[in-house]
Design goal:
The chain is 47% helix and 14% strand. With 177 residues, the protein is an alpha/beta fold.
């Protein structure tokens, strides 16, 4: 089994990797490899030659954030389980971008605007003067990043700081062991 762990913080990758290894070994599973990636673009490059069986994906990263990585990866692969690994909440992610006046924006309109960004990100299209990151769109529209991740194909979420029992529960959900 090939598992990708994507996080820009090496300490977070190490903790997550250690928890995954501990759970697998307790289950008697020895045939697995963990590949570490420093951001979404790194994962997309690596996965083009070695398709993962499971992905743990941080939401807030430089170069290509986790939500943008999720929608780009799902555009080519809808079956690999992806578990978001994050510290982000609706409140925390809302502080990532400047305050915007959302008066009069219905939930439907917010989702329409988000959908436009998602389409551009899936195609890898950058438009000057537009939001070109799913995380930035979620932040500026004050949407819940975990709900958006689930909407666009994430199979679960584990929160930082990581706990082995949370990692095990997420693994049980997607691997059925």
């Amino acid at each position: 089994m090939l598992i990708y762990v994507i996080d820009d913080q090496s300490s977070h990758r190490a903790i997550l990797k250690g928890a995954i290894q501990a759970v697998f070994r307790e289950k008697g599973i020895e045939d697995f490899e963990i590949v570490e990636c420093i951001h979404g673009a790194d994962m997309l490059r690596k996965s083009s030659s070695k398709k993962p069986d499971l992905i743990f994906l941080d939401i807030n990263m430089p170069e290509l954030d986790g939500l943008s990585t999720l929608v780009r990866y799902r555009a080519k692969d809808g079956s690999t389980p992806i578990i978001m690994a994050t510290l982000e909440t609706k409140e925390r992610v809302g502080r990532l971008t400047k305050e915007r006046d959302l008066t009069g924006l219905t939930e439907g309109k917010k989702m329409e605007l988000l959908s436009n960004v998602v389409e551009r990100v899936q195609r890898g299209v950058f438009q000057e003067g537009k939001i070109n990151s799913v995380l930035e769109a979620v932040s500026s529209l004050r949407l819940d990043p975990i709900e958006i991740a689930a909407k666009y194909g994430a199979n679960g979420c584990v929160n930082k700081p990581y706990k082995k029992e949370d990692i095990e529960a997420a693994l049980k959900k997607v691997l059925r062991f």
